[in-house]
Automatic annotation (TrEMBL):
Coiled coil: none
Species lineage: Bacteria, Bacillati, Actinomycetota, Actinomycetes, Streptosporangiales
UniProt xrefs under InterPro entries: AmpC-like, Beta-lactam-related, Beta-lactam/transpept-like, DUF7586
GO molecular function, a single term: hydrolase activity
Name this polypeptide is given: Serine hydrolase
Keywords annotated in UniProt: Hydrolase
Annotated DUF7586 domain residues: 355-432
Highest taxon of source: Bacteria
Classification via Pfam families: Beta-lactamase, DUF7586
Keyword Hydrolase in annotation: yes
Domain spans labelled Beta-lactamase-related: 27-328
Amino acid sequence: MSQDVERPGQVEEATARALLRRLAVEQAECRVPSIVAAIVRDGRTAWFGSRGRVGGAAPTPATQYRLGSITKPLVAAVVMRMRDEGLLDLLDPVGKYLPDVPAGELTIAQLLSHTGGLTAEPPTVWWERTAGVAVDDLLARLGPGDVKHRPGRRFHYSNVGFALLGELVARLRGVSWLRAVRAEILEPLGMDATTARPRSPHATGYAVHPYADVLLPEPEHDAAAMAPAGQLWSTAEDLARWAAFVAGDTGGVLSPDTVAEMREPATVDDGDAWTGGFGLGLQLTRHAGRRLAGHGGSMPGFLSMVWADPADRVGVLFMANTTSGVSRALPTDLLGILDEYEPRLPAEWRPVAADPDLLAMTGVWHWGPAPYVLRLLPERGLSLEPAGGGGRASRFVARQDGTWVGLDGYYAGETLRLAADHLDLNTFIFTRTPYDPDAPVPGGVAGWES
């Protein structure tokens, strides 16, 4: 096999060449021992590329790399499964299930979103480079001083928080966090090559000397209690399946609505820029009009990243065996190349059958003097938005009792009631003419004056 491994798959030859060139530039200029990358589109791997050597040969889609913190969203997915089963509530304090945790007042949602204020690293020696301690030992070392910020006040990334979530999974499931992740996430998604320790073929983790082209092997060990924060190893094939999952191809592991909830922004992590943040176990960013969800990973000798765009059903990933050096721009640059060379065509418009009663409700309605437009969406959905765009726009779906519930925007979760001459949206009355005097509210106001 040649060193320039290229499996274009669904992308065209020119696209594959441009993607591979970007990867080759990264590997050469950043002095990366080896790197693999892939594009996922519509639930399938559309392109795979690699550079460098693992064991004297080019890495393949089946070569393992350490995922690092991409382990976290896999643990989070099990937590969300337990929530959906009714075993826990995200607003529950973690102490309800781990009574021996000093930070027991922190909620499960806060741990998932890194907003609990818990210390970033455990009160042990450098956990990434030393053998891990047992869970009981870790819990005994934690104290009130390890809560660094008022819970809910701000984003503060916490590896310790996911150690606690891993133990939460273990206690509620009655098996280790790893067995739960394997049985509930990895096996159903077909991620059979994702393991806790490396298996052949796998890359060796290296640190690259800053002033010479020489390598230093990095340690690899069982992180024990801290393992839920960054233990797993995986392949490009498996990580592509996870990218498809985050993009919405959930394979029955979670409902699409639950994965969408995980992708919702819970906190911002880049200050005034407001381009990055976290949901529930998922890292978020906005780039070039895309809203991406996924997670990065970093452990001694390894870097990784996976992003997914559910709106476009596309994902991107890379894994490399270097402690530092890969640019943050690599995955989004690869998506940019895909957009440039093979922009997705819009879905073909087709007419749909319409309920005559709903069709009669469409058109212009007024909130006071402001015009809004009610539109009929496919699958009997409705949208209500200001006639001029912007403002309080929401989509609605029907309930069995004849009312409608908001899906997003200002009116998310609120109730809409339809009447022949007005709309009642959580007490706000919309009428066909501005301030219709016959409407229930405001009704009876003085007439318009010149």
